[in-house]
Structures are given as C-alpha cells and as structure tokens.
C-alpha cells in the first residue's frame, strides 16, 4: 500500500464495532505458536513485527471472524451461482463481524457477445442491482474518472473519508455524499489472465472505516479475489459455450458429452433459413460490410425464434438451423411456435427493407419440417464439433432450396403440417436433392 493511502489520518482509528486493538496480545515474540513457520532466530523479530503490522488493531475475535470469512470465500462461496449472490452474502457476513457495510459493489470483466463487464451493487436494506456494460460503454470516459481506474493503475487499495474528499476527485463522490456515505474503500482484483476487476465498500457509520475495519477488509481481499476468479471462470465457460454452440449443446458438453461419436436425439420442429441471392449481394462488398449485413439479417431471424422458445443450433454462413422442442405429447405447440417465428421473421425482414437499414434488399427462404434432430460429436483428434445431423435435418435444408424455385419465402413439409392446427395450401409433390422419392410441400 502506498504512503499517500496509508497516511490518510482523517479516518478514525476508534473501534466502535468490538474489534478492539489488542492484536499485540495475539501475535508476539512471547507467543511462538502463532508463527506458522519457525524462522531463524535472527529473523524471528522481523517476522513477528511484519505480522503485527499487517494485523494491527484486530482483536482475537476480529481475527477469528476474518479467518472465518476467508475460509467461507475459499469453500462455500465457490458454489454461488452468480456474482450478486456472492456479494450479498459477503456484505451480510462483514456486517455480522462488526465491519459496517452499507453499500458494496463488485465488477468483473466478462467474455460475452454483448457486454464487456458486469457490476453488482448491494445496498443495506435495499434491493441488489446488476448492470452490464456494453463494449462501447466507456466512450464518455466514465471508467477513467472512477476509483476502479485509480486502483488498477496504482495496484493498491484506496480509502477515502468522503467528508474531506473533493467532489471532483472521482465521478461517484458526489453521489456517495448525497446518499449519506462517510467512508469509502476500493480494492483492485487482478485475475491470472490479466482481467482487471474490483470491489468497493462504503459505510454511513459516523467514524467511517476505522483502522481495524481497513485491516479486516484488506485481510479478506486475497481470498475474495480467488472466489471471484473461480466463479468468473465457470461463468465465462458457460457463456462462451452457450454463445457459440447453443443452449442444449453447451449443457451437454458441460455435463461431459465430449467423446467423439456420442449422439443424442430430439424430436422437434426444425427451421432452416438462408438469405436469397447472398453471393450476388455480397460479391463486391468489403468483409466488414458483409458481417454488418449478416448481423442485420440475423437480427430479423433470431429474436422471433428465441421469443417462441426455439434454439438456434447452427449458423451456416448466410443461413441458420433452429429447433423447437416437442413438449411431451403436445407436438402441435412446437410446430405452431416455429410457424409463428418464421412469419414474424419475414415481417421483420420486410420492415428492414422498408427502412433501408441494410442498404440492399433482403430476402429469406425458410423451410419448416417436423422430425428428429440428432446431436453428434464429429471430428478428429482434439478438434471436434458438436453438430446436428440426420435425415430430417438434411430434408429441411433441401426444402429451403425450393424457396427460390417456387417463389415462396416459407415452405412447410407434410410431417410439419400434420402437427399444425391450421390447413395450409399444398403446392404439390417435389423431388429433393439427394433424397429418394417425392415430398409434398405446402405454403402457409
């Protein structure tokens, strides 16, 4: 800790929480049992002095409470499913130990498709809140004006007596003062992968954070950092797998389905969609513009699918494959959800064309079928793909090839129609590339 922070004498060293300064009676040269590793005689005095200084002001009960919270952080806290739950329980335990916490916040960087970091805020007697920061969320320099930026740069904790802190010191100071906070502390938390995270505490106690309180908080931070990193690691793995391979596949991978050749089958309505004239539309585009066009296109398709309970299993260039699971014996609801999603997606594409947002006219070909989707681990060596295979999947994709031929944006198979409550119009029987026989095709 640097001198500027340790010499902050405005914070009271008085102990109003029962953490009285009797640490000298706990660890002293006369109490060698308190030293875990017996040093050489010439180093003993320096070792004891270092321990005494680091724990200065803590009572025996305070030390026991600090150790209990550290133990909890390294054991039960690892089971917390989310950051807010971890922060809430920690704040409750600190208050129970006599450290007056009225506000706590925890920020962690994250690998997510839509946001760069997540902040949880706990308020004593109030509801906990969580906020996600988009990748462009710091365009106004908010981070650079925050205490977190300061501790990340100094790599040292920060303690403030808000009664003596100028409003322009950090962006959050006026807000904290207005809400009645007196003391504020902020700690940097660095993960092994280089992520810069942090946690802060604020109190409305008249004396702010006393010296024993600061010592207590500093004592638990290393264990807290470990708990945060463990939880963040699992959360990141869960998020990344969900983003890139879908909800059901990611759950199967995490449960241990990683052996090549494993196959799982699911009865469902199957949706296949691709963009009409994709090659012609993008032949003269820069790659960045192609990506932008695809994102606009998928923004029309994916939200309706997810709103109807569907799952996007694969992005296939300018196409996608999604399923709507059967709900027990009620196969009609899955088919109806798929049809509703497809019609909504086409309506969104029309709206996008009317607005001109894509810069080129967008058209989609969507095919709907009902059958069996099979998940399988396919690949070689240490590089596998959790992909969707099977005759019904192939049939759905081949149907999509008829969209352009028939001039219909949405086509339905006979097995799909048999699960619908409506009576679609038959377009006739058609051959599908690579499949034997003919297939009756419908439009809604």
From TrEMBL:
It comes from the Bacteria. Coiled coil: none annotated. GO terms for molecular function: adenylate cyclase activity. CDD domains: CHD (cd07302). Residues 269-400 form the Guanylate cyclase domain. Pfam families: Guanylate_cyc. One of its GO terms (biological process) is intracellular signal transduction. SUPFAM superfamilies: Nucleotide cyclase. This is Adenylate cyclase. It comes from Chelatococcus asaccharovorans.
